[in-house]
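Data card: per-record layout.
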Amino acid sequence: LNKWLLKLQCAYLNTQGSSPSDTPLKRIDDGKFFIIIMRFLYILRTTVQYFLVLGNSIFLHFRSISIKLIKVVSLRFAMCIKSSIY
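The structure for this 86-residue chain is written out next.
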């Protein structure tokens, strides 16, 4: 766990500075890294909450909607069969 935290604290962005591979790199400050993680977690939490609320409302009404849909489709299907027979 400590090695993982150390790697997170030493995260780099492609902005300014120098590296052995001649790619410009800049170290992320601990405070900025914490802010980035907190923003990501907030966005993730609100997205999950949105889908949970939306999913619950859909599943609560899904049974009644599916029953109505089956009735409508079966009536139209029965009408098509009757019209093709006569």
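Known properties of this structure: The beta strands are 12-13, 26-27. The helical segments are 2-9, 30-85.

See the next section for split statistics.
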